[in-house]
């Protein structure tokens, strides 16, 4: 049996959504126990309301505190019984195989650092979401999506190593192709950071480094892994999210203006559904904190049920494939 | 009469496209003379073929060399008679009021630096394209879109000043709102660069600084001006371009798979046309090099006729509104 701790207090829409997502996910996962971490009464109420889950498939770890979105990173020290802190401790004491939370990003990063620490050789863990791409069944792992403001070339080299192991282990990609996000594809492009990283990746013969890659290739499925620093990664990700949101809503707004277009949209319903499914961020609504000494996922706090189910699936896949130990081995290779 | 030099050799599709675009643009601009800079024979052939232009509306400045896309930035020193070099010289000697080229970006930047130099107080000019936004008739000026790899807080402060003057003068915006591209909207976000820039912008009471802004707001029309460093700007811009291209082509590819959807698309034709017009990069296919001591525009080399017409329009608007002198005055204010 695998065990995953779920900090259900870190949901903007309340713990009920999180519990409902977990129960939905448990439906066809008979080798998994989910440990709900948070307010006992709220969790029990949500379970009773949702029903349809065997008591052998979950546990409740009751906590009395939680860190809300207006909290501070210092709360991980102040609030000993915060659900986020307890969920991380369950990973640290190996009571569970992994955890997820939709809570405060800064507190999550600080908590992971203080409670779990990092894998040998890692100084700055990175957020690694997966992107849908134009290539069927090929997703792109993207990191760092914003755990850090500044990264060194060594950080980015380590990200490539960890993501490569993750891609092989969890996604079953044989020889994952790695790209470095840059302002051009030629050699020697970018800032000092990119120039030095390019050199490190090029020299590491264990990695399948394909060179520099531009941000317009983020969704084309050109590579399996795209590495960048946390500041640039965060900006690129949000530019992408913003653009797809704006474009789809511009189409919608224009459809509403015309009767003919409404009919047309009806005929095109399946097209929009297909495109939405391919590029739906709810299907990619979480990111592993890679480099942390534990399998820990950050989900979007604003997730709906589908979003949390998706992050649960990612956590389960990572746990089931024992990716942490494989990353530890990778980091032990000099 | 206004005069604009057009380096027609800097067009990936050949000078003919550039000449055709110019002739089209001249149709209803009776106060403008375009100086075609490049290979005389090719220019004359293109004019003869296109016809329909008065000889009082254009001049030819014949050159014997040009810098192609595989050229080097050193070519601006080596090739004295390159069309790009000559077009910049025409600006420097005030034979024309402004110029545009679709040619080699690096050579353009180097040429502008050596031939024109910078406005007082400017060290690193920036590329400033304009974005379409969701707000009708509001475009966002975005800079630096990639003229530099590294920028200082002072550079970004100057960008805000120059763009503000541009927005007022050329676009007629009364009190342009300025945002700083960052990884969050709270104060103190980002790297040292963003933190120090935020402080400078906040303290400058001549500027209407609205604070940090995330990349997902690039198309929402939240501000009139968005400043960032050249590396981040280039990545954000390409992420945006890539996403809109991918989404629209995913819709198209899915439409092609179904007869019903094809019918639907027909009914929705006007919707797609409207969205395409709003977000069409061909309508925004060029960028001024702001901070250069002259009105100089870089068009995409891959532009079609419409793309070059759009950049010509931007150049004409800048020239006609005497924006260079207004920026000089702005930079003279301490």
UniProtKB/TrEMBL annotation, chains A, B:
GO term, biological process aspect, one: phospholipid biosynthetic process
Signal sequence coordinates: none
Main location: cytoplasm
Keywords annotated in UniProt: Acyltransferase, Cytoplasm, Lipid biosynthesis, Lipid metabolism, Phospholipid biosynthesis, Phospholipid metabolism, Transferase
Keyword Lipid biosynthesis: yes
Reactions the enzyme catalyzes: a fatty acyl-[ACP] + phosphate = an acyl phosphate + holo-[ACP]
EC code(s) of this entry: 2.3.1.274
Protein name: Phosphate acyltransferase
Subunit structure: Homodimer. Probably interacts with PlsY.
Parts of the chain that traverse the membrane: none
Biochemical pathway: Lipid metabolism; phospholipid metabolism
Function, as annotated: Catalyzes the reversible formation of acyl-phosphate (acyl-PO(4)) from acyl-[acyl-carrier-protein] (acyl-ACP). This enzyme utilizes acyl-ACP as fatty acyl donor, but not acyl-CoA.
Top-level taxon of the source organism: Bacteria
A Gene Ontology molecular function term of the record: phosphate:acyl-[acyl carrier protein] acyltransferase activity
GO CC terms, sorted: cytoplasm
The gene coding this protein: plsX
Matching PANTHER family: FATTY ACID/PHOSPHOLIPID SYNTHESIS PROTEIN PLSX, PHOSPHATE ACYLTRANSFERASE
HAMAP family linked: PlsX
């Amino acid at each position: 049996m695998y065990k995953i701790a779920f900090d259900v207090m870190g949901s903007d829409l309340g713990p009920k959504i999180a519990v409902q997502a977990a129960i939905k996910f448990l439906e066809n996962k008979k080798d998994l126990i989910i440990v709900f971490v948070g307010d006992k009464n709220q969790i029990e109420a949500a379970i009773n309301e949702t029903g349809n889950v065997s008591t052998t498939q979950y546990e409740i770890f009751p906590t009395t505190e939680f860190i809300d979105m207006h909290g501070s990173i210092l709360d991980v020290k102040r609030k000993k019984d915060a659900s986020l802190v307890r969920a991380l401790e369950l990973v640290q004491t190996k009571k569970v195989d992994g955890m997820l939370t939709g809570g405060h990003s800064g507190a999550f990063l600080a908590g992971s650092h203080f409670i779990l620490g990092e894998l040998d050789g890692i100084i700055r863990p990175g957020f690694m979401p997966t992107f849908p791409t134009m290539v069927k069944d090929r997703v792109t792992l993207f990191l760092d999506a914003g755990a850090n403001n500044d990264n060194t070339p060594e950080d980015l080299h380590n990200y490539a190593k960890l993501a490569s192991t993750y891609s092989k282990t969890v996604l079953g990609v044989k020889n994952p192709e790695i790209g470095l996000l840059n302002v051009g594809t030629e050699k020697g492009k970018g800032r000092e950071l990119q120039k030095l990283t390019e050199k490190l990746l090029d020299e590491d013969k264990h990695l399948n480094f394909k060179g520099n890659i531009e941000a317009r290739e983020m969704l084309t499925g050109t590579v399996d892994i795209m590495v960048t620093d946390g500041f640039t990664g965060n900006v690129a990700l949000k530019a992408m999210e913003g653009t797809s949101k704006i474009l789809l809503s511009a189409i919608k707004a224009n459809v509403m203006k015309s009767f003919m277009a409404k009919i047309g949209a009806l005929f095109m319903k399946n097209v929009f559904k297909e495109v939405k499914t391919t590029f739906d961020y709810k299907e990619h609504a979480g990111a592993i904190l890679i480099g942390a000494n534990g399998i820990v996922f950050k989900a979007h706090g604003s997730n709906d049920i589908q979003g949390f189910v998706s992050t649960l699936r990612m956590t389960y896949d990572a746990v089931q494939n024992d990716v942490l130990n494989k990353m530890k081995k990778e980091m032990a290779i000099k």
